[in-house]
């Protein structure tokens, strides 16, 4: 190994260390930004190392036109990434993450396609098993990720209905596509070289991504995003094996493993298995409509902003429960302003964060961090639940299914057994909501019928503005 090779390998090692440390820092909202910066620095370092190798000729001769294409790709891709990161609203961030998953999976699949076409052109030379396995796995996982992420983004954006879309025989088609991919992969693994079979595997993967995500309802989209993110990382790791690139292997393995762990944790938070979620059919998405008023066993009690403000202003302990309705209304700054007013009056304020609140993992944490809400006030479900019994007021802003007591008490409920925030145990409950429309699970929320609950019907941003004005007047 030359001196240059040694230096580049050390650069790759430094980049890998940045990935590991950056991922570790993303474990906490307080250090997540630095973790992102460190990971980005690691990627920049890896790119510089690769460019050095190319320039030195260690990765083959690269002509001027190739350099132009590389530079154009960096400028266009980096420019689009910077533009979308700065312009896309937080409410649309799950869609953006899905698009990024699609791009990552698609890029990894293209690497495998190019490599297989190149290797298959060497007449009479069999493809070694250590190359054919990652190549085929790369194209299968990458193609599934690409189309699955496109469908997920379409559902989140409203271009495709958020409700489960189950066509007649669709599950049989999904099973058949999986069988085609497996049989085709085994055919190639035993030493056969066939572009038509490889193309059939690619087509099966692309169709599988569609048939896998279409039957999944909006309630399960956070888990789907996390799973597809894991797929993206795994596809990138396979691409690393195809290219013999240790940085891609390490980065992909980190993303794949962390995404898989997060998917399992989120499935546990919904008291369901990942397989059950992938089967689909749960959650009605945006198409759901609910009763305009209360249901059996109680009635809805509506309150005004002045009454709610008095409860909040004279409370000692207040727990705020943010949900996707807060994100849609861009009300994160309003909730922070209200919290600061209450704290100035000596009120202890905390935020209860459910693992699947919003539409992607960590959605509420990022949203509130954007509004400069102090990190120590953000409490995860297991930590905050024991405190609801001591809370004078629980203020629910746009959260629905994650506060529904039916998950504990109603065995017939589709969300029965799902861990929820124990909002109903607070001494008083205020819910800011535009209407009685149910959440993504498509069921009525029993919390709204609780005698302790007062409904403040308003858009989250307008409702918080009313409360801020009313608290100032108290």
Q: How would you write the strand order of the largest sheet?
A: 3-2-1-4-5-6
Q: Characterize the overall form.
A: globular
Order of helical and strand elements: HHHHHHHHHHHEHHEHEHEHEEH
Largest sheet: 6 strands, parallel
Class of secondary structure makeup: alpha/beta
Radius of gyration: 25 Å
Helix content: 55-70%
Query: How many beta-strand segments?
Result: 6
Q: Averaged pLDDT, please?
A: 85
N-end to C-end Cα span: 75 Å
Uncertain parts: 283-296
Strand fraction: 5-15%
Number of helices: 17
Protein described:
The protein has 474 residues and is an alpha/beta fold. The chain is built from 17 helices and six strands. α4 (93-120) packs antiparallel against α5 (129-157). The termini are far apart. The relative contact order is 0.10.
Any descriptors?
474 residues; 17 helices; six-stranded parallel β-sheet; alpha/beta
Please provide a brief summary of the model.
This protein has 474 residues and is α/β, with parallel strands linked by helices. The chain contains 17 helices and six strands.
